[in-house]
Amino acid sequence: MPIQVIMPQLGESVVEGTITKWLKAKGEAVKEFEPLLEVNTDKVDTEVPSPASGTVLEILAEEGKTVRAGEVLAWLQGAGEPAGAGEPVSARVPAGAGEPTWASKKGVGVPAPGIEAATAETPARGRGELGFISPVVAKIASEQGVDLFQVKGTGQGGRITKKDILAYIESRGPAVARPVVAAAMTPAAPAAPAPTVPAAIAPATGPIPGEIVPLNAVRRAIAEHMVLSKHTSPHVTTVMEVDLSRVVAHRQANKDAFARDGANLTFTSYFVAAAAAALRAYPIVNSSFTEQGVLLRREINIGVATSLGEAGLIVPVIKNADGLSLLGLARAVNDLANRARARQLKPDEVQGGTFTITNHGVSGSLFATPIINQPQCAILGVGVIQKRVVVVSHPELGDSLAIRPMVYLTLTFDHRIIDGAIGDYFLGKVVEVLQNWR
Fold first, then answer.
1. Enzyme catalytic residues
2. Cα-Cα-Cα-Cα dihedral of 161, 375, 318, 237, to 10°?
C-alpha cells in the first residue's frame, strides 16, 4: 500500500508551515528517517524525515505552499513492493478533480485511506461559508477589492491562503476600483471623471528597470509581520539614557569567572535582567490586546532579536526569564543566538514571547523606533554604548563633568494598552536597575 507523508506539528503552538524545499524528487529512493523535505515555520527551517524506506510516488504539496499539520504532503511506495504497486489510476479520476487517487496491488479500484479528503477538489462555497480567513488574506482582499467568495482555496478544508488570493489577483488582471462588497451595497451613481495623475507619479507601464531579488521565506515573513503590526497597534516611542558605569564595572570584574562556567557575559544579559525586573514591577507591559480585554501574561518570556545577516532576523525566546540568574541568562542568550545563526533553532524556541529586546546598537545606531512584535504590546530598543561627557551631581561636591559609558534606550509600546506615563515608569525602572546594578 502507498505510504502517506504527513505534515507534522512541529511545535506545541505551530499549526502550519511553508514548504521551502523538497530534498527528494518524484521517483527517487529514500530511506526511513532520511530528510525528505524542509519546512519553514516562523522563520525556522526544519527538516521532515521520511516515515519509511521506499520511493517517492507523488508530491502533492509544491515548494512555497503553506500547509497545516495533518495534511498529506506526498505518497511513498514502500521498499520491496513490486514496481507499479502504487501507480495512479487516472481512469478513475473524475473530470476537474485535483490529484489522482491511488490503487494498491491488492485493492484495485479502492482508493488509499484518506486520499479523497486530501486531494478532492474543494466544492463551491456558498455565502457565509468562507471559513477561517487570516489577517494577511483579509488585508489583501480589502486593498485589492477582492470578493473572497470568488477565490478557490487550496488550504485544508478549502481555506483560502495568501498564495490563493495572489494567484486570483494575477489571473483577474488590474485591480478593481473599489471593494466588491462596497459596490454591492452602494446605489448606482454616475461615474466620476478619473483624476488626473501627474506624470511624475504615473505608474510605470513597461518593464521596471533594475533587478528583482526574490523574497525568501524569512524576508517574506518579516515583511508580512511588520506591516500587520503597524496596521494593528498605534505605536508610541519614549526615549531615555542610561549611565552604565556600574554594569561595565560588574562585567569587567566577572566576565572571566563566567567564561570558566561556559558563558560569555554580554551586555545583552544585563538588559534582559533589567527588562524582567521592570516587567515584574509593571505587568501591564507583559500583555496583549484582545477584543475581550487586555490579556495579562503570567510568564515572562523575553525574545532577543538576532540578526541572520542578509537573510533577515529572528527572535528566539528566553522562557521564564525572570527566574534565571545573570549566569543563567548569559547561557541562554549565548545558546539561542549561536543556534539561531547556525539555523538550528526549534519552532517552539521562537514561540510564546511576551516582550522583545532588539539591540540595534551593535551596528552603531544611537537609538531607533522598532516595530512591536505582535501580539506583544512593547519592545525595548538598545542603542550603541558610547563614552560621553555628562554632568554628574554630588550632594557635597556639586556638579562636575565626567566621562561615562552611556546608552540610549527606547520603548515602543501599544497605545491601546499603555499610556505615556506607564511607558515612562516602565522604562524608568529599566534605567534604575541598570544604573544601580549590584
1. 415, 419
2. 130
